[in-house]
Structures are given as C-alpha cells and as structure tokens.
Amino acid sequence: MSWEKEYQSKLMDAEKAVDFIKSGERVVIGHACGEPSYLVETMVSKAEQYENVEIVHMVAMGKAGYAQPGMEKHFRHNALFVGGTTRKAVEEGRGDYTPCFFYRIPSLFTNGSLPVDVAMIQATAPDENGNMSLGISVDYTLPAAKAAKKVLVQVNKEMPRTAGDSCINVADANIVAIVEHDAPIIELAPPKIGEVEKAIGANCASLINDGDTLQLGIGAIPDAVLLFLKEKKDLGIHSEMFSDGVVELVEQGVITNKKKTTHVGKFVANFLMGTKRLYDFVNNNPDVEMYSVDYVNNPLVVMKEDNIVSINSCVQIDLMGQAASETVGYKQISGVGGQVDFIRGAAMSKNGRSILAFPSTAAKGTVSKIVPLLDEGAAVTTSRNDIDYAVTEYGIAKLSGKSLKDRARALIEIAHPDFRESLKQVYEQRFHCKYE
Ligand code: COA
Questions:
Q1: Confidence (pLDDT) at 1
Q2: pTM of the entire predicted model
C-alpha cells in the first residue's frame, strides 16, 4: 500500500483515536512545547471510560488535566520531571516522580522498566516520502514512538520540520491513528532578566572563550548569559535544548558552530522551547539538527565536543559543593533533566567546563542558596565530586580540585553578604580554624 493510502486508512477523529487507550495501560505523552495538546485534552474529556491509566510525561507545558484533583481513579501521573502544572499532584501524592538521568529515559522504554503501550505525539504533515517530523520535541518522544505498541499522532501544520533524525513514517506498523488538528505550537515567553541575573550572566560569560560550544539550561540565567556574549566569536551549540536568545546571537554572527569538533556548522539539540520566532528559525533549517536525548545528552557523545561549557542552575548548594537542583527539602519542584549528563560530559571533554549559576538568595532574599548543609529531604542532584564552577551575582567559585576547606571558603565568598557571617561561623567550627 502506498503511504498516501496508509495515511487515509489511519486518519480518524480524536474521539476515536483515544479509544485505542485501554484501562491499565501506560501512555507516554510527547514532551514540553511539542505536546499533542488536542489529543491529550480529548483523552481527559473522556476520562470516565478509563481506569488506572498511567501517564508518563516530562515537562508538561499543556493543561495537564490528567493530574488535576478528581482524576485519580482514571489517571495516575508518573512524572519524569515536575513542573508548574504537575507539582501539586506530586506534592499531594496524586502523582509520582521517577528519578532518571535524561539521557537514560529512552532505555526505560526498552529495558522492561517502563514498556510503552501508547505513545501520544505531535508531528508535521508527511513529506513526499511519508516522513513526519517530530519537529521541536525529539528528545524521549521519538524513542517512545519507536518503542510503543500503539502510536497516536496529532498532525499539525504549525509544527516546524526539523533536520537531524526527527521523523517517523506514516507506514510504521505501530502508528494506529492519525488525527489532523492545526493549532499554534505551545510557546514559552522569554524570561524577565533583572539586575541579579545580569550580574550572574556577566560572571558566566567571563568563563566562555571564542570558539567554545555551549549547553544552556532553561530560564532567566542562561538567557542572561547570552546577553554578555555579543563580543565573542564562533560559538557553537550542543545542548539539550535552546530558546529564543540563541536566535539573536546567530543574527549577530556570534554563533556560527564553525569551531565545533562534531556536527561542524550545525546546532545540535533534542528539544526546543520558545516563541514563534524560534520555531520559524528552525523550520526547514538544515543547520539545526534534532536527535533523541540518548544521543544528544549521552556524556560519551558530549565529551567528543572539545571546549564544551555547560551552564545550569540549582536550588541550594552546601559548603561541600553538593547541589540540590530539583528539590526544596522534601518537595520535588523539578527534576534532574540533563544537568548531570552535561556536567559529566563536559568533565570528560578536552577543555570542557561546567557551571552551576544561581542567585545567591531565594524567597525574596530571605534565604541563602549557599548553606552549611542541604535541607533535610533534599536530593543531591550534582555531587561534590562532579561540580566544577559555582557562580552567583557576587562572583565565581572554582570548586573542582579544591579541598573541602578551600571550597567552603570559595563558596562563602560568593554568598550574599547578609549570610556570610553565619557561614563563616560554620566554617570555623567545621575546620577548627579562623576564617581570615
Ligand atoms: N529555598 C527555598 N525555596 C527556594 C529555594 C531555596 N533555596 N530555591 C528556590 N526556591 C523556590 C523559589 O522561590 C521558587 O518558588 P516559587 O515558584 O514559589 O516562586 C521555586 O523554588 C523555583 O525556584 P527558581 O529559583 O525560581 O527556579 P528557576 O526557574 O530559576 O529554576 C531550577 C531553577 C534549579 C529549579 C532549574 O534550573 C532546574 O530545574 N534545574 C534542574 C534541571 C536542569 O538543570 N536541567 C538542565 C537543562 S534544562
């Protein structure tokens, strides 16, 4: 059968497509801004017909109706990352969090840990060969679609077609339903960058050299770093994700990817979050290559890129250099994401460096992020053995290669002045010496 005929035979409305999901099955939903919101909302609207469907999702940028109170009987949310829409469900015990390095998530789908009954994904319309691109979310979404017994696809003409390895084919035997629904792709507005973020950005930028390749996390700090890179030359991108800030540096000729060791001349990422400006930039752009996360984030792949600089953030760091990036005490507020994947990859790369950049205080200046000990219940995301640089608005602390005593001192020097005295007292007790 031609792919065109296969397409017609699989085409149906969303109500019928979600009937492929059966009670007790595991459904993996496409990631972040690539979420197939129309299919997800249709499934939630038919909640009464399901019992105990496990929903596996990472960054949930849609309404996450399956995680709302009252849905417990029908859906059980298993979060691979906790965000604004799912935090309460996990906190209140209506959902679970499964810890896993991002690059290893696809292996959970194939090694018997989380076999996929249904993958619910979004894609472009097919090209002349029947290939549908997963566009801005290839990450774990493509591996889930390959591993699933049944794939439900929302075909959306608004989804950018991306290069790299981002496609499934209409003829793939496990695609059981195709639903056409055009709607704007979910956008993430650029974050507000204040004076603190700018100072952190300037400090991070001082660690970046011409020709370096960057991995940038999400949020105000990575965007603030980009503001201070305008004078640099020939930067490259090999990153879990990137957003709008990068487009500006391409237009200014700062990011060229020319000096990269792998994928020379190309951006490499596994998902994208931003505005239409970003989505238009990547659409049919042969220089933006999207691959699955088990490739992009694999530390053994990251390490092949010389001069890679990884920039991420944390919630709290103790005086030993242990960083909690995903919990506030017992409360799970996000996930490990690709933080450790890149920190370890950068550690093995020739001239690689990793930075944890964060404001010195939280909760409107009432608590220090640099603390004697992590809060009870906090998970260590980045271990003291992995950490390289810590950066706040007050400066840069190089921690790798430093003794416990020297790293404690380096961290106190970049703490907020309001908290330095109490930290110095801890230092004196712990190390039996004067802080001078
Ligand atoms: N004590 C108490 N509360 C704290 C705190 C602390 N030390 N640090 C943060 N918080 C609170 C904030 O006040 C905020 O609360 P609110 O939502 O009620 O305002 C919340 O926790 C989130 O903190 P914030 O600093 O605003 O988060 P952020 O958006 O800057 O993200 C991380 C910071 C660390 C959560 C984020 O970078 C992350 O999830 N990292 C791990 C994953 C990762 O690095 N992935 C790699 C690439 S994407």
A1: 86
A2: 0.97
